[in-house]
Design goal:
single chain, 183 residues, alpha+beta, 5-stranded antiparallel β-sheet, two-stranded parallel sheet, 3 helices, 7 strands, binds zinc ion
Length: 183
């Protein structure tokens, strides 16, 4: 296993819509285990493939306190939203030090493939649903701040500039968002 650099805003790969996985190859298995190690190292509770520069439609997450309930989610699609719209603070490994409250539906019914290639369906709410919706946004090329109200979004611009210029540091390996950025 290996810790991979996390790609930072505004690297182009983070704005790319990812491509569904056709075959769960050894390469995909290795990628997902490296992504889990990268996520635990940061530490974070979710990581999408394009956050490590890959274009596969998959993410990993683990919301357990002890970090021993990893979930590998391949080709996810949200079948249904349920519950009230809920405000919850989000952060992102690609956006060090930017946090804000995002409004999303509380629950989702998610269809995906697990790492063995089994078709799975999960009905989740609360934090796990939140993480999954955030990661699926990444797979569509979307950051959480794009869901903020115009006022809150405007307030995050200064921080986004700092991240893009490599001024905001992270305590895990990163790939700067801009080629001009210095480490
Ligand atoms: Zn994120």
């Amino acid at each position: 296993m290996a810790i991979l650099p996390v790609y930072l805003y505004d690297h182009p790969v983070l704005k790319k819509k990812t491509i569904p996985v056709q075959e769960i190859s050894d390469e995909i298995k290795e990628l997902t285990s490296n992504m889990l190690e990268t996520m635990y190292n940061a530490p974070g509770i979710g990581l999408a493939a394009n956050q490590v520069g890959e274009t596969h439609r998959l993410f990993v997450c683990d919301i357990s306190e002890d970090g021993n309930e990893p979930l590998i989610v391949i080709n996810p699609s949200i079948k249904e939203f349920f519950g009230d719209d809920t405000e919850m603070e989000e952060g992102c490994l690609s956006l060090p030090n930017l946090r804000d409250n995002v409004i999303r539906p509380d629950g989702i019914v998610l269809e995906f493939l697990d790492i063995e290639g089994n078709q799975r369906e999960m009905k989740v709410d609360g934090l796990l649903s939140r993480v999954m919706q955030h990661e699926i946004d990444h797979l569509e090329g979307m950051y959480f701040f794009e869901r903020l109200s115009p006022v809150r979004k405007a307030r995050s611009y200064a921080m986004l500039k700092r991240i893009a210029r490599g001024i905001e540091g992270a305590e895990y390996p990163v790939e700067p968002g801009s080629r001009k950025a210095t480490r």
